[in-house]
């Protein structure tokens, strides 16, 4: 029986210079430091500055154009789609170039469309690329050992990710079984609801067995726990967070200087 | 709590008048258990389904839960302490290989128990390597656990347990879901571990012959949750052989009362389902086999055997019209297709019902209704039969499979044997010309097994074509009139029936 292999996702990915030496938990922090300020303003300058610097930095880390397209194509597709909807339905202002029913292309909506497209890219690309090679186990180790999140919570969530692959298999088998049972022709909604119920039952059963197996191995005791895999932070971690902060600062400063800074609360 | 890393040595178990009642149940799962297990003893724990064997094992492992899970009477002690207070003294391996994989890499999974016991890092890894070596798992520490076979997963769980250096090893039907190769692997690993550690062993298992050479004591629980017998294996088994067999335990030396396989297909009986240069594989998955030319003979029983991962289930689903061929064709004979084209995968879901029925390996995958009665009625209703006819068919099937007393029960609450009978019954209700079964005897106790095999013989005698994916030697001996063997490579050998041709 083959299960969906979460480990496979990380084995075929090329290495990234520098980023790979940073603890996964720190990469999560860096992504938040970098993208949170970009969520606070809707202008094209800050997004363009951030995106420009990011592309240079990721190219230095070893991200080739081919790799960029392969690993981030959903973002590359989503960004212009978000832009087009802004172009047609964004708040109109200035010259009207084209109009059809509710859709209206104006100076304002063109500007908004560019800003939104750049912003989706500037937020989505670093998030995807920083986590290119993150193994869930390593991330959990970082969250528990470096960030000191409760081990019970982190390891419970980590073990649960093992079950996801089983659920995918369950769902496939159940769809075939629906066809074999004579209810595969019509009523997709009703069929999906019986499958969702069965999956819930299986999930609870598997989950309680997994919990028993973990408890039998001493999990959940009050005694202090050791960690077989060290998860540490060092100079590269500090550098990555500093870079992230600098990029965000440059983007916001550039927008303020250009006079386009427009916070979402204003 | 004693968590000293070197606190090894076999453990002692003392139970005095011990009993347990699950919260919300009227009847006690176990009661009045008086049992002393000396350090280093190896005990096989037997009993019918529902006699509380697993409950006793969970109690010894200290994972039965607190007062909100149930209430206990008497005393149960592990080395003189309550088992829950003695974490790490008992190591537990459960039945389902998939549900006890905890982490993504083999080494991390085995190290998990040591971490929880607070073992220092260097010692953890030396224990992990030692444990993996002891169970004969010759794999790198970063090997993905998702790529392990069932037998390998069970050996990994065993390694995870013994890395904690437990004085008591508890095995809860560790081989019930494995093929014969996996069973042998796990049994050998347990034997090696016991020789190295001298740990006390308590193993629950329906199949007595697997463990008989390894244990020096047999304890039997009765259906009422009380101790029924206790002593050396030969004495206890000799005295209780028939009673145990009647309770569903696989005792060696009690003949299975089922017909032997015969080459039942009359000469001239053509194929029911055949293939032409068939290629099989899951959608978007790799092609597992190409160029398969097979014949499933009409109105007789055929078994499909071969090693794990060879693609037997995929082949069965393809023959049953549920997966599309990746190349070539599956051809249903006119007697089965009855005028709607000979490719089963092109048939509509409703058209499959009276032609080819498929019984899945996991009953839960095919349950769609909230009562046993509705479960059987789903397919006849989908066929568009009149309500009176549906009722008559459902009654007939429920009676035949002795499920009538459970008609109002939810399918998800049935025991393993009942669930299996229901899945077969739900398929029979539309009287398909051919029935395909995937590992129908997995995890079945002796009673469920005999019942199922007899039923399948009846179907063949009535003219139904059967194809069963199986590893079960006794099943093959009884229903392997025709045998198809699928090997891991792209080659297929169809072996004719015969005593000597047993896979």
Estimated helix fraction of chain B: 25-40%
- Biggest beta-sheet profile of chain B: 6 strands, mixed
Form type of chain A: flat
Helix percent of chain A reads 55-70%
What is the number of domains of chain A?
Answer: 2
Could you say which structural class the secondary elements and strand pairing of chain A correspond to? mainly alpha
CATH topology of the largest domain in chain B: Rossmann fold
Protein architecture, described:
The complex is a heterodimer of chains A (266) and B (503). Chain A is mainly alpha-helical and 266 residues long. Chain A has 2 domains: 22-136 and 236-258, no CATH class; 147-216, no CATH class. Chain A has helices at 8-11, 24-39, 44-61, 65-89, 107-130, 136-145, 151-180, 188-216, 235-258, and strands at residues 96-100, 103-106. In chain A, helix 4 packs antiparallel against helix 5 (107-130) and helix 6 (136-145) packs antiparallel against helix 7 (151-180). The longest helix of chain A has 30 residues, at 151-180. The radius of gyration of chain A is 24 Å and the shape is flat. By secondary structure, chain B is an alpha/beta fold. Chain B has 2 domains: 13-246, P-loop containing nucleotide triphosphate hydrolases (Rossmann fold); 271-501, Rossmann fold, CATH 3.40.50. In chain B, the strands form 4 sheets. Chain B has a 6-stranded mixed β-sheet, sandwiched between helices. In chain B, helix 2 runs parallel beside helix 4. The longest helix of chain B has 18 residues, at 180-197. The model of chain B is unreliable at 1-6 and 490-503 (pLDDT under 50). Chain A: One of its GO terms (cellular component) is plasma membrane. Chain A: It is found in: Membrane. Chain A: This is Energy-coupling factor transporter transmembrane protein EcfT. Chain A: InterPro entries: ABC/ECF_trnsptr_transmembrane, ECF_transporter_component.
């Amino acid at each position: 029986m083959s299960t969906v292999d979460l480990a496979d996702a990380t084995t075929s990915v090329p290495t990234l210079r520098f980023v790979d030496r940073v603890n996964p938990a720190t990469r999560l922090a860096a992504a938040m430091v970098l993208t949170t300020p970009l969520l606070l303003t809707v202008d094209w300058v800050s997004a363009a500055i951030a995106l420009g610097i990011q592309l240079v930095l990721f190219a230095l880390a070893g991200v080739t154009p081919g790799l960029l397209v392969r690993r981030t194509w959903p973002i590359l597709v989503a960004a212009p789609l978000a832009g087009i909807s802004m172009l047609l339905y964004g708040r109109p202002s200035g010259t009207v170039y084209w109009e059809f029913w509710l859709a209206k292309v104006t100076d304002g909506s063109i500007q908004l469309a560019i800003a939104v497209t750049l912003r989706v890219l500037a937020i989505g690309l670093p998030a995807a690329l920083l986590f290119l090679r993150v193994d869930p186990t390593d991330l959990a180790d970082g969250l528990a050992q470096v960030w000191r999140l409760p081990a019970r919570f982190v390891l419970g969530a980590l073990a649960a990710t093992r079950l996801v692959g089983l659920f995918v298999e369950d769902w496939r088998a159940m769809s075939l079984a629906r066809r074999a049972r004579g209810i595969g022709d019509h009523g997709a909604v009703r069929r999906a609801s019986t499958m969702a119920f069965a999956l819930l039952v299986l999930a609870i059963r598997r989950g309680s067995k997994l919990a028993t197996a973990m408890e039998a191995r001493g999990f959940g005791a009050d005694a202090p726990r050791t960690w077989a895999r060290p998860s540490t932070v060092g100079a590269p971690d500090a550098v990555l967070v500093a870079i992230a902060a600098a990029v965000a600062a440059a983007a916001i400063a550039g927008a303020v200087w250009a006079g386009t800074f427009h916070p979402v609360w204003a | 709590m004693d968590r000293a890393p070197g606190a090894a040595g076999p453990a002692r178990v003392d139970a005095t008048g011990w009993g347990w009642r699950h919260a919300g149940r009227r009847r006690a799962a176990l009661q009045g258990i008086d049992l002393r297990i000396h350090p280093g003893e190896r005990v096989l724990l037997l009993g019918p389904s529902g006699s509380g064997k697993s409950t006793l094992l969970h109690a010894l492992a200290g994972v039965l839960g607190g007062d909100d899970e149930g209430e206990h009477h008497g005393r149960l002690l592990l080395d003189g302490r309550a088992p829950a207070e003695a974490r790490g003294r008992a190591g537990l391996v459960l039945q389902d290989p998939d549900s006890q994989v905890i982490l993504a890499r083999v080494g991390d999974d085995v190290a998990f128990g040591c971490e929880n016991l607070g073992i220092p890092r260097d010692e953890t890894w030396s224990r992990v390597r030692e444990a993996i070596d002891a169970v004969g798992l010759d794999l790198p520490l970063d090997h993905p656990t998702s790529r392990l076979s069932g037998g390998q997963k069970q050996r990994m769980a065993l390694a995870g347990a013994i890395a904690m250096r437990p004085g008591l090893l508890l095995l809860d039907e560790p081989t019930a879901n494995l093929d014969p190769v996996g069973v042998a692997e796990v049994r050998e690993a347990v034997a090696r571990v016991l020789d190295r550690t001298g740990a006390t062993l308590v193993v629950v298992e329906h199949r007595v012959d697997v463990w008989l050479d390894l244990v020096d004591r047999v304890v039997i629980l009765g259906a009422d949750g009380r101790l029924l017998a206790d002593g050396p294996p030969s004495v206890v088994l000799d005295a209780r052989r028939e009673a145990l067999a009647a309770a569903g335990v696989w005792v060696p030396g009690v003949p299975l009362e089922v017909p032997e396989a015969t080459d039942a297909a009359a000469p001239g009986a053509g194929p029911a389902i055949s293939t032409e240069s068939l290629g099989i594989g899951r959608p978007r998955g790799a092609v597992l086999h190409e160029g398969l030319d097979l014949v499933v003979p009409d109105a007789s029983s055929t078994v499909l055997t071969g090693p794990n991962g060879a693609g037997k289930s995929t082949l069965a689903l393809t023959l049953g019209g549920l997966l599309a061929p990746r190349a070539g064709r599956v051809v249903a004979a006119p007697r089965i297709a009855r005028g709607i084209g000979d490719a089963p995968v092109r048939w509509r879901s409703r058209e499959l019902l009276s032609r080819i029925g498929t019984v899945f390996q996991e009953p839960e995958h095919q349950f769609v209704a909230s009562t046993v009665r509705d479960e059987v009625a789903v397919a006849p209703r989908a066929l568009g039969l009149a309500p009176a006819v549906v009722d008559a068919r459902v009654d007939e099937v429920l009676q035949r499979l002795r499920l009538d007393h459970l008609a109002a029960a939810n399918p998800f609450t049935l025991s393993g044997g009942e669930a299996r009978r229901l899945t077969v019954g739900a398929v029979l209700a539309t009287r398909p010309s051919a029935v395909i079964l995937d590992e129908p005897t997995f995890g079945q106790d002796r009673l469920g097994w005999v019942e199922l095999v007899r039923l399948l013989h009846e179907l063949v005698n009535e003219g139904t074509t059967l194809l069963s994916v199986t590893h079960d030697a006794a099943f093959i001996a009884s229903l392997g009139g025709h045998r198809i063997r699928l090997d891991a490579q792209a080659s297929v050998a169809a072996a004719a029936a015969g005593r000597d041709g047993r896979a």
